[in-house]
Amino acid sequence: MATTTLAAIKMSAVLLGISPIQAVVLAGVITLIYSTLGGLKAVILTDVVQFIVAMIGSVGVSIFVLTMPEIGGLTGLVTSPVLSEKLSFFPDFDDTTSLFSLFIIPLAVQWWSVWYPGSEPGGGGYVAQRILSAKNEKEAIKAVFFFNIAHYALRPWPWVIVALASIIIYPTLDSLKIALPHVDPSIVNDDSAYSAMVRFVPNGLLGLVVASLMAAYMSTISTHLNWGASYLVHDFFKRFVNPQANESQMLLIGKSAVVLLMITQAILALFLESALQAFNILLSVGAGPGYMVSVGYMDPGNWATDIAGGSQFGYQLIWVLLMSNIMAVVLQSLSARLGVVYGRDLAQASRESYPPVVNFSLYVLAELAIAACDLAEVLGLAIGLQLLFDIPILWGVALTLLDTFLLLILINKGIRKMEAFILILVLTIGFAFLMEMIFAQPDLGKIVEGFIPSIPNNEALYIAIGIIGATVMPHNLYLHSSLVQSRKIEQNESKIREALKFNFFDSVISLNLAFLVNAAILILAASTFYNANLFEVTDIKDAYHFLEPLLGTKWAPILFAIALIAAGQSSTLTEKDIPSEYRLDEPVHQREYLCNGEMRKWYGAVHEVYSPVCIPTEKGLKRKLIGSYPICTTVEAMESLEAAFAAYSNGCGEWPTMDVAGRIACVEKFMQMMLEKRSLVVKLIMWEIGKSYADSIKEFDRTAEYIYATIDALKDIDRDSSRFKIEQGIVAQIRRSPLGVVLCMGPFNYPLNETFTTLIPALIMGNTILFKPPKYGTLLHYPLFEAFRECFPKGVVNIVYGRGNTIVPDLMKSGKINVLALIGSSKVANELKKLHPKVNRLRAILGLDAKNASIVTQHADLKLAVKESILGSLSFNGQRCTALKILFIQRNIVDKFLELFVEEISKLKIGMPWESGVSITPLPELHKPEFLVDMIKDAKKHGAKVVNSHGGEVAESLFFPAVVYPVTSSMRLYHEEQFGPIVPVVAYDSLSEPIKFLIESTHGQQVSFFSNDAHEIASVLDHIVNQVSRVNINTQCQRGPDTFPFTGRKDSAEGTLSVVDALRSFSIRSVVATKLTEDNKKLLNTIVEEHESHFLSTKFIF
Fold it and tell me: pTM for the full model?
């Protein structure tokens, strides 16, 4: 009903321009009046008239829409290219998702709703309603027959036609919002399209359409109101509450139910924004984290206080349960909001907000609360086992503990499975006490009186305090704020608000279920023990033993014990599992960025980071959410650029004028703070890009070594520069000075190491930095923010986030970028350089694409060549710029080489990054497996094969290495960089063939040459050394050692990166000179001796 009212709200807003509240009141009051005044016959008569009016209106709209020139009739509609993919009668059977969601499941639901064996007339309430409303079997058959024709064959088609036409007129939601400027944007969704189309209808027909829509609304609502009231009166009130009720009592209850249902659905409709949202709410009911929390509100500790309150004071303390439940709803909702909006649970927020002393106190209190509650829960379950099976308490506790450990295993199968299990236990408790209420037949009048606040005496006050204490438990707040983060929520304002709404409904429904259970326990105690003058029943065992004689059925104590076991078991399952040494303690939800020495808070859109590591969920394997980071806009990017520009201040800022020793000290301090974050950064490298744990450690440690080597190299350069040079009567000092603002962008495959091979040299040479992390491997830089902020003057290091194609172009166009340091694509580098207004002023330090080849001759050591080629082509899944990306093997040894190569590949361990000895790990790029599969398909199309077993097979983000042979120049694999675990193999007859490949290639980084023939090596060396920047003899291509030059030719690089070369690349030689005269000597000595200048100095750095 709420979704029907929501439709009325939207149509009224579009067609009549009235507010949602006005629409609800207007439509609701009219419907409510005739629904309460009339009965079933009135509904039938009005339904007939309303159906006819509604059909005339909907058919009229569809005919008019088809005559619109934009549609072009029925032929134009079905042939429109906009609808070409939306008119298939059957879904794509190769797409299993569409097959199940759009075809199999709807058919199954329709079959179930009308008939299924053994349960005639089936699960369909609509069909049952028609049958039961008829006066005899013959009329029932007619009713069902007419209903199916009218409901399925006739009614939908006019609406379908208008819906399809609306896709042509309003292809996007934005176009729909533009067309409805007078309507509140929050209620404009895709389901507003029908109303928008109706606006085109001429006035006469428009009036009929509005009348038909009102008729459809009133027909649906009145039917559901009478239907629902009938269920409540006959199936609940008459059967369970008052079996002797007369007609007038049933009529009163029925009309009251109609009013209550109408008010409830109207309130819900005002909260909804779309019908899909209502569907999501239904899914969230029974599937949300609220039920995980609610079990803590119905544990055995609550039972004891509820039984004591009911047995001593009857129904008088029900109001305390209600008030404590309202408190719980408010507190749990606030806790959930913290988790959804801020991405922190209460414990994390407390740790960030309070000093250590306060946090330690909070920790101790939380542990005590958990221990106290668990004591009640474990003992409660043990008591339940004893009551049912006469098991001693000690053995019951042992079974409880063992059972808890077994269920902790279940949580590793997915949080949603755990929630489903908890829900089953909660429903078990609820069902048990529903039956207890039926057995007990409590006094409804006294129950209502119990909601009036009163405290009979001091003893009642103590029990009321106990009820509140057992209900509002602090550790549940910690839990709820953490559980809500297990949901995937898009980080934008509308989706966050929607998630808050869902979590509120989830909390209200689940905690009110807990309230009903607690109220049922108190009511049970009041209606049995209190009425029997047993005022001292405060023990669970006593309650169990007294139930059977007081209620006269053996099922009462059995259900009581079963519910107790379920309560004790479910409550113990809310303990968090302890993470292993390889797991992240918590998702890293970054909500700040570093600009001008400030950690600026971010409240805008964020990008969710999913690890390439997939974990089991109820929907199969899915990438694990490990955090999120800001999606900054051009505004924030330009602010960061201005901060870097101001800090450089045309070379006059604090950092560029600081002496070398001072800059080195800052970097050394940064290095110390960076080492403190080693464990977290290593884990983030592993989880973000799927790099093995061992390789992640190596990347961090190698980066640290590089920074120390850079410091040592700068000291050497400065020592050499500290002397004056005298030439031809000119005395001079030559030092290196900074270039300006450096835009630094690193790669995802070595997000720490390769980024810092440009960032650190640029920084230590006195430049100011604008750093944009890569799309993958982003979060790992966040732990270093504080080190950057504390160790360098404000504005020297600025870290900006966002879509590169959105924010970087304006940075380049500003002309304030002096150096572009990019490790990535040559295409991107070329486009960015073109954007700079003065390209001659822009220095570029670029590490770009590569298609490094391996050439294996017949004189090579095949075992060595295979070993090095395996390492070179498949280390870190082949996702290295220096990886061997094509192998040229002399034809007369290619078969033997492939045999050995395939054998070695079969020995590679494929698995998760934390596994020992793993070689192939998940790929970080979301669509990379699809790209690699396409590359293989292209090769197969042109005659190649995958020669190793399982090569090219995909399991979510895992891609089994594929050896493709024979590769020829007609294939993409021959020319394009695959950057993944595919090994193209080319057979050649003459060495001129691979040399030709090197000459014609657009890449020119490195080559590996395998041969033990010195003359053969010498014969080609002079040719290939002029095609690439490094020739590796009998070894794989590689970057190290870091003191060696690392560069490339053609489209592979610009500038040279090694420890020393990088320092030179990010600086320029500057000279201070004068004629060698006595006056000038005295002048220079004064400046040097009195340390007046940082540049002109003879200080020697040790």
Answer: 0.54
